[in-house]
Amino acid sequence: MADNDLPSGDLDRRRFLHLAGLGAAAIGGSSILSACGGLKGSGSSSSDVLKIGLVSPQTGPLASFASSDSFIVKNIQDALRNGFSAGGKKRKIEIVVKDTQSNSTRATEVTKQLISDEKVDLVVASGTPDTTNPVADQCEASGVPNVTTIAPWEAWFHGRGGTSGEGFTYTTLFFLGMEQFADCFFPMWEQVGATSKDVAALWPDDTDANAFREGLGEMMRQEGYNPVDGGKYQDGSTDFSAQIAKFKKSQAELFTCTPIPPDFQAYWKQAAQQNFRPKLATVAKVMLFPAEAEALGQLSNNIATDVWWSPSHPYESSIDGTTATQLADAFAAETGNQWTQALGSVYSLFEIAVEALKKADDPKDKDDVAEKLRTMNYSGISGPLDFTDGPEPGVAIQHPVGGQWRPGKKFDWDVVIVENSPNPDVPLGGDVEPTFA
Predict the structure, then answer these.
(1) Per DSSP, which regions of 62-102 are E strands?
(2) How many angstroms separate the CA atoms of 12 and 28, rounded?
(3) pLDDT band with cut points at 50, 70 and 90 for residue 390
């Protein structure tokens, strides 16, 4: 049986060792995790070595978005250990990893380091607009090809001053937008049987939340819903009594939000203490990863969120045919941790980077590689992604399904897919249930 023909979730020893990265040699030379958090390559400047920089929040309040990065880097290194053909010759890959520490200013600084000091050929980045926007801005200003993910496209595009119909020259993104959040959340609201159209909305004053406030808020009104905005607040707030009081007064039975994870945990605990218990909570930016469910314990039960990648998604790697299920299983086997949605997204960043480098006539020509990114249309472990199909040039859209956190079998909590109308290829695992009855 060929590797690509392995049954879902059934890893043979060779496949397991490959995915887990056990004994993997770094591409282009030995790699070590430096004390400052950078995964350093051999430093070779040879034209047969292509360097990719990865920028993500490995520490700080957004660290859950990067919890699988080390595994992915090892996996990509192993999958491409023999190199690949690009520009008429065999190339090898070096990956240099930089930690933003969940700080936008530092995201800019480490991107500058990758460009000026490491001389990377391409930069990939992930983990909310706090990461993607400053990284993309620096790459655009420096003329370095870049692809990012896990940031609503409106927050990334309009938040950076993008010109509609024109886009950017060097920077691209794949993820969701407000329309996709609506396609995911609104059907769940209908299914839960709320008697009120009021929707309590906890939206802070940041790029991410303002995109929801303006975009999703208007879509809610068009569909007959009434967003009850708790008011702008600063990230890092610890007292949400005013918002909770407003939500309780409205008698809203539905709830949505876009805070940073620590703020949501503080809010949700306070809401329970103050007896605001919505019939259904559909949250964005938070409750995406198992660590967040574990932090809330029983208060996690039946919180719903958008699911853009899971082991149930019927996709496979464009690099080596690894399926979504196999990738999730290998991650759990090596780390002992549960899969996260970022596992598929960050893996796809490298798929896209490799595709662009392969397609370029000269992978060292940054204009050539950037053009290949802008015109990319391929299918990989995150499914089909077409950067030419809009909604703006250089933006590829994913279609999330709805999931709810429920007690798991192997792990404490797991996501059950309960709404798949935006992407029927993803099988349902259960029905929508109230967050609070």
Answers:
(1) 84-86, 89-99
(2) 27
(3) confident
Which residues have CB under 8 Å from 174's CB, separation 6+?
147, 149, 348, 352, 382, 385, 387, 395, 396, 397, 398
What is the pLDDT, as a whole number, of residue 437?
Answer: 84
CA–CA gap between residue 355 and residue 363 (Å, rounded): 10
Nearest residue to 428 (alpha-carbon basis) of 248, 188, 264: 188
Alpha helices by DSSP H, 212-340: 217-222, 241-250, 261-273, 290-296, 324-335
Q: What is the DSSP string of 140-181?
A: HHHT--EEEESS-HHHHHGGGTPPTTT--SSEEEEE--HHHH
pLDDT of 9 above 90: no
Q: Average pLDDT, whole number, for the chain?
A: 90
Q: How far apart are CA 70 and CA 334, in angstroms?
A: 11
Q: Cβ distance 289 to 344 under 8 Å?
A: no
pLDDT confidence of 47, banded at 50, 70, 90?
confident
**Whose CA is closest to 40, among 99, 125, 102, 106?**
99
Cβ contacts of residue 316 below 8 Å, gap of 6+? 4, 322, 323, 324, 380, 381
Enumerate domains of the chain plus CATH numbers. 3-176+310-397 (3.40.50.2300), 178-307+401-419 (3.40.50.2300)
Amino acid identity, position 421: S
